[in-house]
Write a structure and sequence with these properties.
Layout lengths: L1 H69 L10 H12 L4 E11 L2 H14 L3 E7 L3 E9 L3 H6 L6 E11 L1 H27 L3 H33 E10 L3 E2 L2 E2 L4 H45 L4 H10 L1
Helix pairs in contact: 5-6
């Protein structure tokens, strides 16, 4: 009986151990399923959140596009005052040109041309700078305001038959404004030196400042003269009118050629040629013969019977 009771007890203990092992396995499986379910739920919630965020972003982009479409355009900013000033400064620098013209005419009367040129110059507000007249031709150098230069050149056809006409211009813009800026700099330097001279206390400094001031003043006057001459050339254009009569014509009309005078000129030229030839022969005789004699003597001494140079070379060869 005691043996049977012990075996039963061992069986009961083994069954209890198996039951406990089964319960532990079941609990572990439940925990794994619960964790998997929790993780699946978390992944699902994250996917939903991403979808909601994508939807919100799409709505945000669409809202921005609608707002931009409905918003008024931004006004274009006006140029800064400094930029406007610089553009006005650039436009203030006008182009500076020196215009010149030249007209050659064949006319019937020089007196009529002279009168026509005088009235023509007065009409355009100019003046005759110089003139040169002879029996057969005349040259007039006139000054015309540059703004009326082309108009005045077009009217020169009324003086006579135009044989040639040309117009030209020289751009002196850079030279003009460079000279002007240098002149302003010299004036500023002159003012500063004058102020230094007033405040100078030492005689040595006063003399040195006064010397520099004199140099600056001389440069200033020279540059001012150059600028004035250049400005005058720009303001008044120069036109040269050359008028000549037809061959064998004067203001009185046609004239016969002076045949006697032509023959006199011919004989005069012949006589002048003969006289010149005679003097050439005299110069040759007076200066040419002595030179030839001197050359002959030198040759005789060096290479002739005496032969000094010839003997020298013979000794050197030995």
């Amino acid at each position: 009986m005691k043996k049977i009771h012990r075996s039963q007890c061992a069986f009961v203990l083994a069954a209890a151990a198996l039951a406990l092992a089964g319960l532990s396995l079941a609990s572990c499986g439940a925990k794994k399923e619960a964790a998997y379910g929790a993780s699946s739920a978390s992944f699902a919630s994250m996917d939903m959140a991403d979808e909601e965020m994508d939807f919100d972003d799409a709505e945000y982009v669409m809202a921005n596009k609608e707002a931009k479409a409905m918003a008024p355009e931004a006004p274009v900013p006006e140029p800064a005052p400094q930029q406007a000033a610089s553009s006005s400064t650039v436009s203030a620098y006008e182009r500076k040109l020196i215009k010149t013209g030249n007209v050659r005419l064949e006319v019937q009367s020089l007196a009529e041309v002279k009168a026509g040129v005088e009235s023509w110059v007065k009409k355009y507000g100019g003046y005759i700078a110089s003139s040169d007249e002879s029996n057969s031709n005349a040259t007039f150098t006139v000054k015309i305001p540059s703004e009326r230069f082309e108009e005045a050149m077009g009217e020169t056809n009324s003086f006579g038959k135009v044989t040639s006409k040309n117009m030209g211009s020289k751009d002196v813009t850079d030279r003009y404004y460079d000279l002007k800026s240098r002149l302003e700099s010299k004036r500023i330097m002159q003012d500063r030196l004058e102020n230094y001279l007033k405040s100078a206390k030492d005689i040595k400094d006063m003399l040195e400042i006064e010397s520099k001031l004199n140099d600056v003043t001389a440069d200033l006057e020279s540059m001012q003269g150059q600028l004035n001459r250049l400005a005058a050339q720009i303001s008044f254009s120069e036109i040269t009118v050359f008028a000549r009569l037809k061959a064998n014509h004067t203001d009185e009309g046609f004239t016969m050629p002076d045949i006697g005078g032509k023959f006199n000129d011919l004989w005069g030229n012949i006589v002048y040629f003969v006289v010149g030839l005679f003097f050439v022969i005299i110069y040759v005789v007076l200066f040419g013969i002595p030179i030839v004699l001197i050359l002959a003597l030198l040759y005789w001494l060096c290479f002739g019977k005496i032969g000094l140079v010839r003997r020298l070379f013979a000794k050197l060869k030995k």
